[in-house]
Amino acid sequence: MIRVMLPYHLRRLAGVDGEIKLEVEGQVTQRSILDALESRYPVLCGTIRDHVTQQRRPFLRFFACEQDLSHEPPDAQLPDAVATGAEPFLIIGAIAGG
Which residues contact 73 (CB under 8 A, 6 or more apart)? Predict the structure, then answer.
């Protein structure tokens, strides 16, 4: 069971409170987690990654095990702690400004 934490605005859009638990088939990667998340919550399609390119949206970051995974390849295997559910996969809303 994979644990996913979404930023407040995406939790509200999906109608969930707190952490989401997902079953992921095969290797645990950013792509497999996001595919499972969008399958379970279709309203999130296009909010985390672009509909066409499947690239991460600007101002969203991916973290796990205290590591920024935002620039890792989407099919790179995630840490074992995420795959076992010991640590959550975090989707964080980045803040920009001047």
Answer: none
Place of tokens 């796990």: 64
* Integer-rounded Cα radius of gyration of the chain: 13
Range of the domain at 16: 2-93
SS3 26: coil
Q: What is the CATH number of the domain that holds 59?
A: 3.10.20.30
Q: Rounded to two decimals, what is the model's pTM?
A: 0.92
The partner residues of 68 in beta bridges, in order of sequence, read 63
CB-based contact 30:64 (threshold 8 Å) = no
In this structure, is residue 98 part of a structural domain?
A: no
Spell out the per-residue pLDDT of the chain, length 98, in tens.
999 999 999 999 999 999 999 999 899 999 999 999 999 999 999 999 998 999 999 889 999 999 999 999 999 999 999 999 999 999 999 777 66
CA dihedral 83, 9, 15, 63 (to 10 degrees): 0
